[in-house]
Predict the structure.
Amino acid sequence: MTKRRQQQRAKKRRQGQAGTASPPAAAIPAAGQAQSPVPAGTRPDFLRILRTSSFRWSLSLLLFGFFLLLLSQTIPHDYGFLELGFLFTLSIYDIVLAMLGLAVACAMAPRAADMRTIVLVFFAVLAGMLMFFDPIFRAIFASPLGEYLFLIAPAAVMLTGASLWVAGVWRQRVVLLAAAVVAFSLSLFIGLDDLGIGIFDFTAGSVLCALWLVVAPALPLRQFRGPWLTIPSRIIGSWLVVIGIIVLASLYVPLPVKAPSLPDPSMPDGGATMELQIPDDGSAPTLNGEELPLDLLEPGDGLEAPDPSSQ
């Protein structure tokens, strides 16, 4: 009995050693089967994502805004203040680019809560500025910052582009700062255009368009989030930084002044040039481009035509 148990134990030890020495069959790739060049989880399944209901709903929100914009520009009608506010936001090209950069940042947020935080900060700053715009603007204009308000828009564009380059724990903080600066810059455009009037429909249309520009592109793009978006987002960030620098430089380039020279008081008639043209076809003469009436030429002033019979 003891000898049989020893034989069974020896057999089990041999089986155990054979199991640890040879790798499992699943770990050995089959002959002729190539290994995946991209690790699992880094490349999204585009076909599967395109068939999901979440992607379709997010894409519908994006296309719905373009559809309303197409109807607004193709159908002749009287524009309302809500529609004018929506179109006004789209006319601020540099801020529109900054908001699209925020949409990319929202799409790359690691958690849905981070995306909601970015949108809430953007909306809170924008709504707060517009609700109390007059006293806030007077306080800002009276401060030293009032002399540099023209720098807010290019700074917002460059900060948004730079936030797409930041990685790690600081990324969310820089994106939140960029969202606040972009909202502050947009509120200046809206508030100064609506200064002293306070049309609620115009302001509401502008805010709705701003939220659509930030949220609508982010939702479908977020379905494809992953490490592969890092390089495209940094390319977009570089473009935004360059555009912000170009806008900033254009603010300091003096525009060509096309104005007539001032008259010289020391010259006759103030130094103004007198140009008299007498046409050969017998029409009325012109003085500095203005036609002189022929009935002003009275007889005896020396300008009447000679009588041929007197010669």
Observations:
- Residues 155 and 244 are 7 Å apart (CA to CA).
- Strands lie at 276-277, 286-287, 290-291.
- The longest strand covers residues 276-277.
- Residues 51-250 form one domain.
